[in-house]
Fold this sequence. Notes:
It comes from Aristolochia fimbriata (White veined hardy Dutchman's pipe vine). This protein is α+β, with helices and mostly antiparallel strands.
Amino acid sequence: MVKENRKPQFFKFFLPGINDTRLMIPFAFLKHLKGRHSGSASLIGPSGNIWHVDLVENSKGAFLQSGWPEFARDHSVRAGYCLIFRHKGRLKFSVEIYDTSACVKMDSVHAKPSYDSISQEDVKKTSKHESRKRMRKQQTFCEETVCSTKLDSEKMLHEVKPSSFTKKKAAVKLKNRQVHAHRCVTEEEVEKAYADAMSFTSENPTFLTVMRKAYCAVGFYMALPKSFSERQPKASNMVTLYDQSGKPWEVKYIYSPDRDCGAFSGGWKAFAVGHNLREHDVCVFEVIGSNKIRVHVFRVVDGISESPPQSAA
């Protein structure tokens, strides 16, 4: 047992939109692979069953790729789950899975590879198509804004979002406004923001949400976890959010009886824009009273101002 614990290991938090199709091996861990940064890897789940996953190396690092989505799906891995990978030699890893309660995910011991029911012939037919599809998606893991230093109010910013992996044009008026260029964000930065948020402690009930484009860029409709909605009245009402300066923000809580869950709608846009929330930022919501919530923001990019520049009167 002591010998097993001495084997090199690393952990990763599962983040939707980041780890859905691939999972990055930490740079510091690559030395334990002794130059084997690509090839067929084996993941041994808590059940003892084996999942075969391709380890692929590119200019951004080494990633568990083809086969990884199946492993995550077969174990019902969700946002915030912690996975511990223990190296067992060559490209073989045993994996432990902890849910958001910080306890071992007990039902993972019953997981079986879903591709067991698929013939090898079918796998061969689809593998090339799926690999190409994944590669197209993974080429744009980056949040950036490409803009000219001579940008005026008639020119456009081109923005790439990691959730959609497509380029979109957004007209930007520069009058009375300041444009902030978005640089690429790394998986390490995303994971650090999440880890910092996870380290937050309070005697009050809390829940955590990773910002998605639909929450802070378009739509501004933020779905809330059931763990929060279950403690709320089965009806829509107003909730007061307090930022870290103590300023109150009124937000509409929408309850959906069909799904037995809720979301923030009216007023949430003002809060998100007012606090310059970006995709992958992490918000910890601390319930401090009846319909009163304090919000703690953990940013994926350091140096982003709390509030965007105000328009001149």
